[in-house]
Amino acid sequence: MPETTSEIIEVLSKKGTDPSDVQKDSSLEDEERRERIRGLRQNIDERKHYASYLFWFLVGHMSLVFVILFFTGFMLCGFLLSDTVIVALITTTTANVLTMFYFVVKYLFNADK
Questions:
Q1: Which of the four pLDDT bands, split at 50, 70 and 90, describes residue 73?
Q2: pLDDT tens, 26-50?
Q3: Residue 72 in contact with residue 80, Cβ under 8 Å?
Q4: Quick check: 86 and 73 in contact, CB under 8 A?
Q5: 97, 55 in Cβ contact below 8 A?
Q6: φ/ψ (deg, to 5) at 16
Q7: Which 3-state string (H, E, C) describes the chain?
Q8: Has residue 80 got a pLDDT over 70?
Q9: pTM > 0.85: yes or no
Q10: Per-residue pLDDT band at 100 (split at 50, 70, 90)
Q11: How far apart are alpha carbons 95 and 7 in whole angstroms?
């Protein structure tokens, strides 16, 4: 396996300049490029798909927390939670939402290296 630039140039110069070889290399490069583009498109579609799922999960989660707070605030149906439990509920909900949002944004807008 050539390691230095001069060895690589030597190996490449020894390759035949047969037009069919050049055409094969070109078609392989085109196929590789098409596969890479297809993979990127699939990645984008999956990201949108899972971001939508996460959004609706968070909407449901926040709605449930709102209903719990509403019932507690107006003491509907005898529903009453202590202040400590309410603070813990709001704190953990906020932490969950921010963490999930962070990971989705990081994944959706990552810089592929």
A1: very high
A2: 788 889 899 999 988 998 888 888 8
A3: yes
A4: no
A5: no
A6: -70, 150
A7: CCCCHHHHHHHHHHCCCCHHHHHHHHHHHHHHHHHHHHHHHHHHHHHHHHHHHHHHHHHHHHHHHHHHHHHHHHCHHHCCCCHHHHHHHHHHHHHHHHHHHHHHHHHHCCCCC
A8: yes
A9: no
A10: confident
A11: 57
Supply 75's token pair: 């003491």
Cβ atoms 81, 68 nearer than 8 A? yes
Q: What angle is formed at CA 65 by the lines to CA 77 and CA 55, rounded to 5 degrees?
A: 145
Least confident residue range of 2-11, 79-88, 91-100: 2-11
- Per-residue CA distances from 24 to 17, 30, 34, 41, 93 (Å): 12, 10, 15, 26, 57
47 within 8 A of 108, measured Cβ to Cβ? yes
Is the Cβ–Cβ distance between 2 and 10 less than 8 Å?
yes
